[in-house]
Amino acid sequence: MLEVKNLHVSIEGKEILKGIHLKVRAGEVHAIMGPNGSGKSTLTQVLAGNESYTVTQGDVFYQGKNLIEMSAEARAREGVFLAFQYPVEIAGVSNAYFLKAALNEIRAHQGLEELDAVDFLELLKEKMKLVKMDPSFLNRPVNEGFSGGEKKRNEILQMAILEPKLSILDETDSGLDIDALRIVAEGVNQLRNPERATVLVTHYQRLLNYIVPDYVHVLLGGRIVKSGTKALAFQLEEKGYDWVKEREPEAGEGVKTK
Amino acid sequence: MDQAKALVNREYKWGFVTDVEADSAPRGLNEEIIRFISLKKKEPAFMLQWRLNAYRRWLQMTEPRWQHVHYPAIDYQDMIYYSAPKQKKDGPGSLDEIDKEILETYEKLGIPLDEQKRLAGVAVDAVFDSVSVATTFKEKLAEKGVIFCSFSEAVQNHTELVKKYLGSVVPYADNFYAALNSAVFSDGSFCYIPKGVRCPMELSTYFRINSADTGQFERTLIVADEGSYVSYLEGCTAPIRDKNQLHAAVVELVALEGAQIKYSTVQNWYAGDKEGKGGIYNFVTKRGKCAGHRSKISWTQVETGSAITWKYPSVILQGDDSIGEFYSVALTNNYQQADTGTKMIHIGKNTKSTVIAKGISAGHGDNTYRGLIKVMPAAMNARNYTQCDSLLLGSRCAANTLPYIEVKNRTAKVEHEASTSKISEDQLFYCKQRGISPENAVSMIINGFCKEVFKNLPMEFAVEASKLLSVSLEGAVG
Amino acid sequence: MNRDVLKTPYLNAFESLQGRGNGGNPSWVREAQREAIGRFAKLGFPTTREEAWKYTNVTPIAETSFRLPSLQPQIELSNDQISPFLFGQQNWHRLVFLNGSFVPRLSRAPSGNGVKVCSLKAVFRSESRLIEPYLGQLIGRDADAFAALNTAFLEDGALVYLPEGAMIENPIHLIFISHAEAAGIVSHPRVLIVGAGNSKATVVESYVSRGGGHSFTNAVTEIALGEDAALHYYRLQQKNGNSFHIGTTQVEQNKGSHFLSFSISFGAKISRHNLNVNLAAEGSECTLNGLYLTSGDQHIDNATFVHHPKPHGTSHQLYKGILTGQSTAVFSGRVLVRQDAQKTDAHQVNKNLLLSEQATVDTKPQLEILADDVKCTHGAAVGQLEEEALFYFETRGISREKARKLLAYGFANEVIGTVQLDPIRSALGRLVFERLGDFSCLPEALKHRDQEKDLSDGGL
After folding, report:
1. Residue C51 and residue B66: Cβ atoms within 8 Å?
2. Topology of A1-79+170-179+198-258 in CATH?
């Protein structure tokens, strides 16, 4: 579904990603772990199409198409979803209105009819139960006045409604208490199916207790330096990222996922 | 933001000209012209005298220049002060007597006047250049005792009411343009809601400037008697012409004890072209007086048109416990200029005022909020809250916030807050990542920015206002 | 009446000074003076019809006749007589001026390494070229009528000149004393502060009076800060109730420079301070704080103007006022952000506390923004003490009167608390309490900083 080849990315002239290789197939869940500043968020932003970042080298293919050439909204309509680490606030625009606009843009792209207000509301209410969201959220402005946990749940709600093919979750677990974490994880797990893939970006192993990944990758200094199964996450939790650094002095040179 | 530049360029779709035979006064202004207008309207002597007093006063006044707008000198002698479509008989009669062209004009503007197609629940007074051509639902309103008619008709049929309230809020000597209007006003709407009556439908006036070189000087007077309620809407359009035209209206509102007036404006006069050529000079005096205790006047305005908008819908809070509100969205694109805001004059005890002003500047637009909150010595426990936010789209536009706060009573609480911002890249990216096109994202964010104002508009107007905003902003973002 | 008449005494006085050779000013100064009197003659005293003077009527100043101090006999002052003005700080550097003339005997100034803290007259005699690029240049050709008048009558004043990298630890205190007995005295004090690149200093300007006569002080301070220079500037106006005070502080800031200002106005019958800051180069920053207390029939006006012509400039303003009696206070703050000034961060707050029936306040915060990528806010508030807060104090056994004072003090403390010079901070605290009434109600609070901090903001 997603193939990242030798991806180099810089922002304001500074190189952040220095040759990422990653292959994600439908039905898989990949976890990307790494300490702060390793380039995790940059990777997610680039995949979603943030133009503040410059791709200097490499390719990204998504369902056989060159993702880098597509605009952010085109990627979204093709099924790429990013759950933001810091979702922005949009004053005066209600959650319900925002989601309906997004869903109908995607449906239009798929050649489907627009959902009318009644059908949309029904869908929304059903999905809101999934993330245990209070109905009053619907009329509140997008993310405005939301707590950190509410913002993250709202991201998962959006994901549940838009039903993306490739979900990228950027630190969705950070700042969540254990109950909120469970709710978020359940939301993700319910959306798991053989047609969809998920990329989880995190720096704690914690989330992976609830969403079990098929593969775990360690991102260090802009490169994936180690890949493995869930066991790798436990090793990291126990020994820390220094353990990888020691073992991989030439961090990341030519390391590839299978 | 580059992608947002792609917003399609639709034309100002209200810019057509209606071909009707007009009955016009000769160009220029003097006492003869005023007598001519008064004679045309068959006015009683007091009205002519009032006009002449205003004119003589106007001659002594100088055009104000303190405002934050720039325009070449206006030649008041090179303007036509009266232009009316020729009618079979005097005054607006039945619809059959109205020129077919005019009926079609209003239909094209989305304001059908004929019986079958009328807007449900909205009574319309249609003003075409200098005169009112039709008023709908008059009979139905009369059942409740509500008077809704053209100003000319009111002068004839409700002389005592006009005599009592005309100039009681905006005296003819109030300012340069009010004096000019008082001298030459040709028509407008009059509305009286009797004691304890809740007006059964929205009242509205639709103003249309059609003739070239004509100034439009209409006058609106709304009197809400004790315990009554009325919601009044006003809409305006004009043809595309490359010469500027002057629109200097006066609106007076009087709310007696316990009365409420809600006055909404969606102003869409022709704004001039991309280079700033042409467009209406919209220099208007709007003022309401909360004359009675517990009365309330609420102004809501969406100003998207006009080359220059210069007005301050104000409230004199004279009655105890009276409330004044001002909600405004002013948009300036291309070379449009706006200097608008409000004055809240607290006189009575426990008076409250709220001011929410949203300015959007794009292109070379120049947008100024100017407001005065004045608390007089006897105004115990006056409260005001003012919030002014500016949104800048592009780097060549300007946003100014110029509030004046004058407090002469220690029990007053007055708060003013203002901010200036732009649409952030993060917000745009977030919307795009959800599949929303940049154009829709911008429009969505702008509508969100204006929401606190739009929610005060009657439903149809809110939809219209929101559409107007996106049309007026076309090509502005980037 | 014909306002032109009001100018005549000043124009005549200028002629007579010219006749006496302007006290030996250098030719370029005399040139500027001729130009300035011409400007004053053209402008005349401002009227309330002018936007900048809408709320301050200077007619009482213009109509009072004053004599130039140089035309009257000199008064002698002793060390003891100036000690009330020193904040108890004998070790601060200081320049003392009496009715505009420098008093060397009472002054003590630092020197060496190119630092000059001296009278302008002394510089005029020795090295006037050093200050030619600054004096009169910063205030510019569009000075208002009062600033023009100051230049026209420039005889003496203070110079603080800091060369590249100079740092002066001790505050430099400039004390301007108006001494007027029966006859009214006018003085035109002038200050020039030049802080070259990377210099750092603290300057305190005090405007005070002795004697009960009328006086009019028409002050101008010009400040130029070089790259990364820092200046803390305290301006205290504590003149007696018979005096008029008009002052302009004009600041020009270079790249990365920091300017911190405290403008304190407690005295005079009519007082106005114009503070104009031009953040002329990228990344410059200013903080302008102010406190005014008015009582009786006083009128105090603060007008600030911050100009952001270049990117990445920062300005923060906080002005607070407490009004009693029939006094009036005015705040007008203008922030102008030019088109090139992207990433500007400009904030302005003005809050006023009305403590009496007849006090009135006019506030006019203005934002003019021509750049789109900026963060600008302003706020203004007028109010009284919160009834809930007063009640809370009462339930804790504190009398209403005391509670009012404490809360009002707390209100002022938001500004006072940011004063970094200890002697000034505690002096201000005491002054505020004195003005609010019985000082004895909480003397301990002012002796220890920690307790002082505990007094919370009075709400608004």
Report:
1. yes
2. Rossmann fold (3.40.50)
